[in-house]
């Protein structure tokens, strides 16, 4: 057998090294996973907001920018009604109003809109499968005496308690929605809604104790309504609650769950809390502003 010269030996080693590196490139890796994630189209989110009693000007920015910071989403915002309680949001009057969107966030407060026919226009796409997020005063909307709105959101609430921070206790630590929540979270401020009924398709994820009723009231949950998934929370009267990283984490995860997209393709891992356009400094990286 001929002797292998040093140069030949080196050439053979280089060839093997090239093959090894090429083989590594063919394996599923971080770069390929990132490329796949970059190819995933953002979920189209419709945020409906407006009405009395809350700072919806700021909250629409917190929700749209904060969720987009944590989940692959793009927002369209419908903000109507001023501070009224009886405004009928115009988009609900349109046939197929929810069709262009993957999920709808209801963060409105119109307690004096009580016509069952109008409520049905809102509920029809959700019953047929359109995912929904319901936040805080959405629980006190569209009380048309049919109970259909309450079946949709998953709970019945007629009133709220005083204004004070409260501890939300994690009831489902194994739920992917509650990952990162911890055993409990004390809100920086609060207005705890009193829950009179939990509907049969509702799964409580967290509750808080009311010193006024001396009862625990569910404050985070999931629900199914017809073919649609619904994620709900009564937390969110104050903007300081919404800006809290704990809130933005569970609301983002809840949104992805409602779309059956709670996975690494849509979750965006962050090491720093979200910053918002109303508090930004020139040059700071910011979430993509929401569409107006």
Automatic annotation (TrEMBL):
Outline the extent of the ThuA-like domain.
64-257
The organism named in the record is: Anatilimnocola aggregata
Q: Which Pfam families match?
A: ThuA
Q: Which Gene3D superfamilies match?
A: 3.40.50.880
List the transmembrane segments. Answer: none
Return the protein name.
Answer: Trehalose utilization
Q: Which InterPro entries match?
A: Class_I_gatase-like, ThuA-like
Q: Taxonomy-wise, where does this protein's organism fall, top ranks first?
A: Bacteria, Pseudomonadati, Planctomycetota, Planctomycetia, Pirellulales
